[in-house]
From TrEMBL, chain A:
Gene Ontology molecular-function annotations: clathrin binding
Chief location bin: membrane
Pfam families referenced in this protein's UniProt entry, alphabetically: Adaptin_N, B2-adapt-app_C
UniProt KW Phosphoprotein keyword: no
Region span, Disordered: 569-622, 733-761
Keywords assigned by UniProt, alphabetized: Membrane, Protein transport, Transport
Membrane topology per record: Peripheral membrane protein
GO biological process: intracellular protein transport; vesicle-mediated transport
Cellular component GO terms held in the UniProt record: clathrin adaptor complex; endomembrane system
Cell location: Endomembrane system
Species assigned in the record: Oryzias sinensis
UniProt protein name: AP complex subunit beta
Keyword NAD assigned: no
From TrEMBL, chain B:
UniProt entry keywords in alphabetical sequence: Coated pit, Endosome, Golgi apparatus, Membrane, Protein transport, Transport
GO cellular component terms given for this protein: clathrin adaptor complex; clathrin-coated pit; early endosome; Golgi apparatus
Listed InterPro entries: Adaptor_comp_med_subunit, AP2_Mu_C_sf, AP_mu_sigma_su, Clathrin_mu, Longin-like_dom_sf, MHD
Statement: the UniProt record of this protein carries the keyword Transmembrane: no
Biological-process GO terms, alphabetical: intracellular protein transport; vesicle-mediated transport
UniProt-recorded name of the protein: AP-4 complex subunit mu-1
Location in or out of the cell: Early endosome; Golgi apparatus, trans-Golgi network membrane; Membrane, Coated pit
NAD recorded as keyword: no
Family membership: Belongs to the adaptor complexes medium subunit family.
Length: 806, 441
């Protein structure tokens, strides 16, 4: 916070501090010092007053001393030299007969945090450990910890450590606890203070003298101790039993932590401890401090992971107060959902229903989701509430309800009829993208049950140009596709429009790609589309609420009594099997998409395909190495192509055995199963990408299937012309010798062969290349380019095929 | 272990800042405030984390009391400590507010120095602390004519009022030492009710959380004895005789309470330290000895013109001698309600439509036991539909019942021993607050 007039204030204070008249009057002097400190805490930079303040610390007035010391400790690091002057005063104060002054001086001496002053501080600290007054010893013990942290890596003085260990027997309990803390920090690298049997028993016996904070510290340190026998263990446990039900939540929590770590191998004892601690924890849930309530609630959730029924009889304690903050309400609802059973379900639902209209939208949505969770076991009652809420026509409520319905239907497919009838008219109230996505999903999957589904989708499609949410667009595409499968007549036209928009106008790549995918999918026929899109509609295994197995305590014991359970995501692991409300929203989506991707990769690992995949990547890797440049110019007219091709044919037939020096003809087979179904345009576009010009095609589904193409290679010795033909004549023949015959025979008959039957089998396309002049290097490189292109094309097909095998 | 501790006003001005370990160079106060303001609403989560900074805060007296700590520290300890610190500041400064903290910052710094050393909690007992604290509290209470109420007509103290004013305990504990002020002791029985009444008038849930607090302003007090109802029974299992036995389910006591006479005569013995402390806490679940203090009879209708008509009758079932004060009923109404017309039965009541909270708030300053009030609200709600009735949710009541304890717990006597030389005043006060009292419609 910038403080106006800061410089002016500092100058005025400086004048006042050095005024002898002020210094003469103790009260005025003290008030001036007070003003300095006030300015400091308001954010004014008063470091310029350091030397005046050093003088002001030589006083008998303890209040003034305290104020000055606080000032000095804040600014000492800026003025290391001047701070040396203070040391003298401080050391003198350490000899003061008043123990309060001694402890004050000692504390501030160690608080200066200047490594250069360490040598002056050590002696008073050593003396402080043996001081008569407990308050000085308390300060001195912690002073050593401060000193060691000031010079990390310095040697640890064994004498000091021994002295601190012996001070564990100090009559003052705070000194004892401080010794534990100091030793823990000094011996950090060796694993902290060593707890052996005598120390353990000493600490346990002294615990009664400590206050709440000391007890917590002792209990924390004792977690390191491992009892040597069962008898000793049970002695310790029975000593601790009283503090397990302590009315002070910190002691109770620390004791339970210790119990859990001592009884890690004795689950029965641990469970008994959890039972015992439930009373005090519940009491803490009713504490006057809402932060304490929250802390207790979060820890109850932890306990319930291992003992789901722990709070069963007390479910009413988790009803929300109307003035409680949202973070408490949400935790309470999470707990209530876990406590549902046949007896209390109607009460709990009544209670939750009241929260659905909460002013706080987060609370309202959490309540709706909670009802959805209960709906997995008690669907009828919950659906009634949820559908009733739709009547409110408020966007945040409708959105939460639709999302909840989607999640519910995913788990309980038997609800679908009710859900379908509830969906009518929802789209008008929905504003946010999450809610609309949920609605679209439902319309797509259960569109046959919602009479108005096509009209709703049509409204979405009409507005798709102004739609900003990517998720909604993707969901819209899928939903329209799905609806097309169930209600083609009503949907065909709008699907066409949507696909056209997505492919031609949409700028987002994801949407466009999805559009293209669906476009090609539709080309493969309606059956395949159905196979892809109509996957599972539900997953009842995620299901039921009741009878969740208890987790072992060890899963959460280490995070008990830490900040972990209080954090927002603290419960995610806990509800992993059922999904916490915030986690839940995206869950069905991933579950729907997952099989597609999974199965896809599964297909890729099929033996024949993996070969082609491997080959593809190999050739792709080879591609740059071949350093082959293809070009389209000079252009070859179809007539010219035909002339040259036929010329070479005749040439070949005439001089079959002759090796021409300037001419090469070669034949190769490439496995690319699906290239045949590619449209000529796709093939042409793909070939042109690598500068291969296609000249003539047969239509996609006729046999024999032929493609003619040419290209020029700009190789190093000379540029060559390559003419080529892709030929597929029906079933590939493993024996290459009589391929001509086979080809001729297939000519007439194979066209009748079933398209779908063929495509899964391996298809070998025969490639005939004619090159002029001869350059085998270039031909080999060209072949690898060509096969890469063909594999790429056919593997794109594969992705879609893969999807058909859901 | 606490690394830093600071107090922010509700607007985010830093009032106090103390760094105990000198480890973090960041401007933690700003980091915290930015995190708070980045969140919608006025309810930031209790724990917030930024990298290795862990903020844990409580709200007391409208202020943020924030500690930064390590991830493995006990949240119970830190929350309890911050609460205790706020209580100490309240004891020493005589009240908790932005102003009192600002005026007494030197005292609070002094307090912090004694309470925490190097981030470790040393002691929070006011008995120990009083030896170390030297600054004097500056009371922020302005001069007021009400302070003269104890002064009689002719300037003499008249003792006319048998009831301690509620502000009597709001003063710094140290004043008693310096000014030789009145040596007083207050024993308060404070209970909080949380009740849910179903739409059919059936009591669905009734919990009472109670505590006995002792607030001591006596310079030297060796021991006090507090006698509770002799027929007090604890736990569900105990057999009860006939008659109006007072019962609680669970109770727990302050460490310093000696219970040797508790089992036989229900007497608590303790040596109170200066300032406030909770001597006994108790809970009662689902079994009120008397009828719940309020019943509501609502009638909700839509009239033909799209107006919502709420007719509420509120009956107070307290004994005729008692009365409730500061009663406030908040009735959730449908979203978009624009205007409210009201008919209330007396001029001191008031009602307003809070559109931000979507509620009609009906304030009743005082409601005597056995009486009944009614109110008629007419709301204009555009687009009112039958489904909108769902939004007319549970009515929340907040109130204060002075001189009343819901469990029936009473203090039979309060004895000081040895008998104080100076005239001392002993006050026993009862009050029941609403923690959450909701009535479903």
């Amino acid at each position: 916070m910038p403080y106006l007039g800061g410089e002016e204030t500092v100058r005025e204070l400086k004048r006042a501090l050095s005024n002898p008249n002020v210094q003469a009057e103790p009260l005025r002097y003290r008030n001036t010092v007070l003003r300095v400190v006030r300015a400091m805490s308001q954010g004014v930079n008063v470091s310029g007053l350091f030397s005046e303040m050093v003088k002001a610390c030589a006083t008998v007035d303890v209040v003034q001393k305290k104020l000055v010391y606080m000032f000095l400790c804040s600014y000492a690091s800026l003025n290391p030299e001047l701070s040396l002057l203070v040391i003298n005063t401080l050391r003198k104060d350490c000899q003061d007969p008043n123990p309060m002054v001694r402890s004050l001086a000692l504390r501030n001496m160690s608080n200066l945090r200047l490594p250069s002053l360490v040598e002056y501080v050590e002696q008073p600290l050593t003396a402080g450990l043996r001081d008569r007054a407990a308050c000085v010893r308390r300060v001195a013990v912690l002073g050593w910890a401060k000193l060691y942290n000031l010079q990390p890596g310095s040697d640890i003085d064994a004498a000091v450590v021994n002295e601190l260990y012996s001070l564990l027997r100090d009559p003052d309990p705070v000194v004892m606890v401080n010794c534990l803390r100091a030793l823990d920090e000094i011996l950090k690298e060796e694993g902290g203070v060593v707890i052996n049997k005598p120390i353990t028993h000493h600490l346990l016996n002294r615990m009664k003298e400590c206050d709440v904070w000391g007890q917590c510290e002792v209990l924390r340190v004792l977690q390191r101790y491992r009892p040597q026998s069962d008898d000793e263990l049970f002695d310790i446990l029975s000593l601790l039993d009283a503090s397990l039900v302590s009315p002070h939540p910190p002691v109770m929590a620390a004791t339970l932590s210790l119990f859990l770590s001592l009884c890690a191998d004795l689950p029965a004892v641990s469970l008994a401890a959890l039972e015992r601690v439930s009373g005090p924890l519940l009491a803490a849930c009713g504490s006057g401090s809402r932060e304490m309530r929250f802390t207790a609630l979060c820890h109850i959730q932890l306990l319930m992971r291992s003992v789901p029924g722990l709070m069963g009889p007390h479910f009413k304690r988790f009803f929300c107060g109307y003035a409680e903050p949202a973070y408490i309400k949400q935790r309470k609802m999470q707990i209530m959902v876990e406590l549902v059973n046949d007896e209390n379900v109607s009460m709990l639902l009544d209670e939750l229903k009241g929260y659905c209209t909460d002013v706080n939208t987060d609370t309202a949505q959490a309540a709706i989701q909670a009802i959805g969770h209960i709906g997995r076991s008690y669907s009828d009652r919950c659906l009634e509430i949820l559908t009733g809420l739709l009547g409110l026509k408020q966007d945040h409520i409708t959105s939460a309800v639709v999302q909840t319905l989607r999640d519910l239907v995913w788990v309980c497919p038997q609800c679908s009829d009710t859900v379908c009838s509830a969906l009518e008219g929802c789209e008008e109230t929905l504003q946010d993208s999450q809610g609309r996505q949920a609605l679209l999903w439902l319309l797509g999957v259960y569109g046959d049950g919602v009479s108005s589904a096509p009209y709703t989708l049509e409204a979405f499609i009409d507005g798709v140009k102004s739609e900003v949410s990517l998720g909604v667009k993707m969901e819209l595409l899928t939903a329209t596709m799905r609806l097309f499968l169930t209600r083609p007549a009503e949907t065909q036209d709008m699907l066409g429009r949507l696909l056209h928009y997505c492919i031609e106008e949409e700028t987002d790549m994801c949407v466009r790609d999805l559009g293209l995918l669906y476009y090609h999918l539709l080309k493969c026929g309606i059956e395949e589309t159905r196979n892809v899109l109509q996957g599972r509609r539900s997953d009842p295994s995620l299901g039921v609420l009741i009878g969740r197995p208890a987790q072992p305590i060890s899963q959460w014991a280490c995070s008990f009594n830490t900040l972990e359970p209080l954090k927002k995501g603290g419960t995610v692991t806990q509800t992993a099997s059922r999904g916490s409300p915030e986690h839940e929203a995206s869950k069905p989506k991933t579950a729907v998409e997952l099989p597609e991707t999974l199965d896809c990769s599964h297909i890729h690992t099929d033996p024949p395909d993996s070969a082609s995949t491997g080959q593809r990547s190999d050739s792709a890797a080879e591609l740059p190495a071949a350093s082959l440049t293809l070009s389209l110019s000079p252009t070859l007219s179809p007539e010219e192509f035909e002339r040259r091709w036929l010329q070479r044919c005749s040439l070949q037939s005439e001089e079959a055995a002759e090796e021409s020096s300037d001419f090469l003809q070669t034949e190769e087979r490439i496995c690319c199963s699906a290239v045949l179904q590619r449209s000529p345009q796709t093939l042409q576009a793909a070939m042109q990408l690598v500068n291969i010009q296609t000249l003539a095609f047969t239509p996609p589904s006729t046999l024999p299937w032929r493609v003619f193409f040419y290209t020029h290679t700009a190789g190093t010795p000379a540029s060559t012309l390559i003419l080529g033909e892709l030929l597929y004549a029906g079933e590939a023949d493993p024996a290459p010798k009589d391929e001509e015959e086979e080809e001729r025979k297939a000519d007439g008959e194979a066209a009748a062969e079933d398209l779908t039957g063929r495509k899964d089998r391996q298809v070998e396309v025969k490639v005939t290349l004619k090159q002029q002049p001869k350059d085998e290097e270039a031909v080999r490189a060209f072949l690898s380019v060509l096969s890469t292109v063909l594999h790429t094309l056919s593997s794109e097909r594969h992705d879609e095929h893969a999807a058909t095998h859901l | 272990m606490i690394r830093q501790l600071f107090i922010l006003s509700s607007k985010g001005d830093p009032l106090l800042f103390r760094d105990f370990r000198g480890e973090t160079g960041d401007d933690v106060v700003n980091v915290f405030y930015q995190k708070v303001t980045a969140l919608p609403g006025d309810q930031p989560p209790v724990v917030m984390t930024l990298r290795d900074l862990h903020f844990l805060h409580i709200r007391q007296g409208g202020l943020y009391w924030v500690a930064t700590t390590t991830a493995d520290s006990s949240p119970f300890t830190i929350v309890e400590f911050l609460n205790r610190l706020a209580a100490l500041v309240k004891d020493y400064c005589g009240g908790l507010s932005e102003k009192s903290v600002q005026m007494n910052f030197a005292l609070i710094y002094e307090l912090l120095d004694e309470v925490l050393d190097y981030g470790h909690i040393q002691t929070t007992s006011s008995d120990m602390l009083k030896n170390f604290l030297q600054s004097e509290a500056v009371s922020s209470r302005p001069f007021s004519l009400f302070d003269l109420s104890n002064v009689g007509l002719f300037g003499a103290d008249t003792q006319q009022s048998k009831v301690a004013p509620s502000s009597a305990a709001a003063r710094p504990i140290q004043a008693s030492r310096e000014q030789g002020g009145r040596s007083e002791i207050f024993v308060d029985v404070v209970e909080r009710m949380s009740v849910v009444v179903g739409s059919n008038g059936v009591l669905m849930k009734a919990d009472v959380e109670g505590e006995i607090r002792v607030k001591c302003f006596m310079p030297s007090c060796s021991e006090i004895r507090i006698g509770l109802n002799e027929e007090l029974s604890i736990g569900k299992s105990q057999l009860r005789g006939y008659g109006a036995a007072v019962r609680v389910d669970r109770c727990s006591f302050h460490q310093g309470v000696r219970l040797d006479e508790f089992d036989s005569h229900r007497i608590l013995r303790l040596c109170p330290s200066q300032g406030e402390q909770t001597v006994m806490q108790y809970q009662l679940t689902d079994d009120l000895p008397t009828a719940p203090p309020f019943r509501l009879f609502p009638t909700i209708e839509r009239d033909g013109t799209g107006r919502l008509i709420l007719f509420l009758k509120l009956r107070c079932d307290l004994p005729p001698k008692s009365s409730a004060v500061n009663v406030c009923a908040s009735v959730p109404v449908p979203k978009g309600a624009v205007s409210l017309s009201q008919e209330l039965s007396s001029p001191d009541q008031s009602a307003e439509l809070q559109s931000q909270n979507r509620a009609v708030v009906w304030q009743i300053p005082r409601l005597a036991g056995g009486t009944q009030l009614s109110a008629l609200f007419k709301l204009d709600v555009p687009g009112l539909s039958s489904a909108s009735m769902l939004e007319v949710g549970p009515v929340g009541l907040s109130f204060e019942l002075p001189k009343f304890s819901a469990t029936g717990l009473q203090i039979r006597f309060l004895r000081l021993s040895p008998v104080q030389p100076a005239p001392s005043q002993r006050w026993v006060r009862y009050v029941t607050h609403s923690d959450s009292y909701s009535i479903r419609i």
